[in-house]
Amino acid sequence: MGRLVCGLGQDTVNRRADLAFAALILMAGAVMHTIAFPKAAAAAEGSNLLSRMASTFKALWLIDSVTSLSLAVVLVAIVVSPALAAPRLVPILALSPLGTAIVIFATLGNFFPGYLMLAAGVAIVLAGLFTGSKGR
Length: 136
Known about the structure:
Blueprint: H1 10-35, H2 37-45, H3 51-80, H4 95-108, H5 112-129
């Protein structure tokens, strides 16, 4: 394989690009999800849900945002410093967005955020495939 700018191989560039793409999706999703929280909270409060269930709904809504943002930060850290994560560990990081996509499709059906989580998960798995001979 040819060498690219700054002595980085194509596998390294591909891995970093895939992780950066996934991080961007997850960060954007977390921000949009958090921005939508006031409307979701109002809908839960105005529903016939028990108070405890409405509170649980609101907590889970924000937990999803925090989880996505946290994973995005981890991915950015790996992009900046690939030695932080063993190449075989990287695909395991895809479990959260892939699991979220499955739950979204199973409960909501054909819903666009499910595809975003699927894309992020697949990008993370592909990043694990671009390890090169040194695994970085």
